[in-house]
UniProtKB/TrEMBL annotation:
Claim: Protease is one of the keywords in the record: yes
Active site: 107, 138, 295
Biological process, per Gene Ontology: proteolysis
Name by which UniProt lists this protein: Subtilase family protein
Pfam family, one: Peptidase_S8
Biological source species: Halogranum amylolyticum
Length: 416
């Protein structure tokens, strides 16, 4: 007997009358469809002929986290702190805090005893049967990255991984069923996991979730030139991994045929919250570890998205993706970065009017061959009115200078 996941156009109860043993069913909404976990001796080609309501049949795949549990870094290598994340991606500590937003981490659970969560009430949902907590450490690290960038966002831990850091498609289907059923209870969902190859049906269930107004943030993967679901979903907001100095990590997945990733964030040698009793990554002083993976780049962007929506309101998922892509800082000559490095300040600055009261003055960035701080530039931009802007040097390489611009000829004191 083999176990399969059967995807159907309607509710799957009709499968009880077929030559299979139905173990579990999942419903994602009448407009999305359903699925069932079954045991059967027949191959998929035979199963598909049972009923016209059967959309497809897939194996009950083994699915992993977007970082290997033994994927550690040299103890003497640099550590990318949350301050490095703020600096590279221009995320201010003031202004929007994520208030009014709820972020789900679909992961291995959370250790709520970590100091990062001492004053937080985290809702815990378990679809594995393992209960609350985090026996792996991955989910704690992921939620830690998000909460440090969006400290007032509400958090939900949706546990899909057991103590070994592995799961299967049937558990993923339980989680998607929960996400579809509770779509009005959260705003952003982070997914730092993925299959080894693309699944059309996982991608379909995922895309329908985004169409309901949820902004997903998905780790692109750590396998170089390959990627899998849900990062390969058409509407997925997939995130690559870069180093603290803004270069792409060698492992970050790149799949141009699947338009993956969309943007990139720091995912190499991150300083991460450690769940009690876990050994993921390289031990640092205190309840902290160092680890790498797109797993940790994604929740940084999830924090930026929560912060963005806290400021902008109920922006549709597509508009959020477009804004972050359009204002990302491209790594010149690097095809693996998607649209480039996520730039929170540029994204906010180009999509809003000046508001001195919230601590986040509108900004943009340009690249020029040579320029000095204080140089005046006249530019016309689709998102800003034409006029004079003061340029403040952000960073410089051998080939370009990246400038931070503020309007009306007055340098913003918050600029770096």
């Amino acid at each position: 007997m083999q176990d399969w996941i059967i995807f159907t156009t309607g509710r799957p109860e009709f499968l009880y009358g077929t030559d299979c043993t139905v173990l579990e069913t999942y419903h994602f909404g009448d407009d999305v469809g359903s699925a069932a976990h079954v045991e059967c001796e027949d191959p998929p080609s035979t199963i598909r002929r049972w009923d016209r309501r059967i959309r497809s049949v897939e194996s009950n795949y083994d699915i992993g986290l977007r970082t290997a549990l033994d994927f550690v870094t040299e103890s003497n290598a640099a550590v990318a702190t949350i301050e490095d994340v703020r600096q590279l991606h221009d995320v201010p500590t003031d202004g929007a805090t994520g208030s009014g937003q709820t972020v789900v981490a679909m992961d291995s659970g959370v250790d709520t005893s970590h100091p990062l969560f001492s004053d937080r009430s985290i809702r815990q949902v378990d679809v594995t049967g393992s209960g609350s907590g985090d026996a792996v450490g991955h989910g704690t690290a992921v939620l830690g990255q998000t909460t440090r960038l969006a400290p007032e966002a509400e958090l939900i831990s949706l546990r899909i991984f057991g103590s070994e850091g592995r799961t299967k498609t049937n558990v993923i289907m339980r989680a998607y069923e929960w996400l579809h059923a509770h779509v009005d209870e959260y705003d952003v969902v982070n997914m730092s996991w993925g299959s080894s190859e693309a699944s059309d049906q996982i991608d379909r269930v995922h895309d329908r979730l985004v169409e309901k107004g949820v902004r997903d943030v998905v780790a692109a993967g750590n396998t170089g030139d390959t990627s899998g679901s849900p990062a390969t979903a058409e509407r997925a907001f997939s995130i690559g991994a870069c180093t603290e100095d803004g270069q792409m990590a060698e492992f970050s997945s790149y799949n141009p045929q699947g338009d993956n990733p969309d943007v990139s964030a720091i995912g190499k040698d991150n300083r991460l919250a450690q769940a009690s009793g876990t050994t993921m990554g390289t031990q640092l002083s205190g309840p902290w570890v160092k680890a790498s993976g797109t797993s940790f780049a994604a929740p940084e962007v999830a924090g930026m998205v929560a912060k963005y929506r806290s400021r902008e309101g109920a922006v549709p998922p597509k508009e959020i993706l477009t804004a972050f892509e359009r204002h990302a800082r491209d790594i010149r000559g690097e095809p693996r970065d998607g649209a480039g490095l996520a730039d929170y300040a540029a994204t906010v600055g180009r999509s809003t009017e000046p508001d001195e009261g919230d601590g986040e003055w509108p900004t943009t960035t340009v690249r020029v061959a040579e320029a000095d701080a204080g140089d005046r530039l006249t530019l016309s931009d689709d998102w800003f009115a034409s006029g004079e802007y003061t340029a403040t040097r952000l960073s410089q390489s051998a080939t370009e200078t990246i400038l931070h611009l503020t309007p009306n000829g007055t340098e913003n004191e918050r600029s770096k």
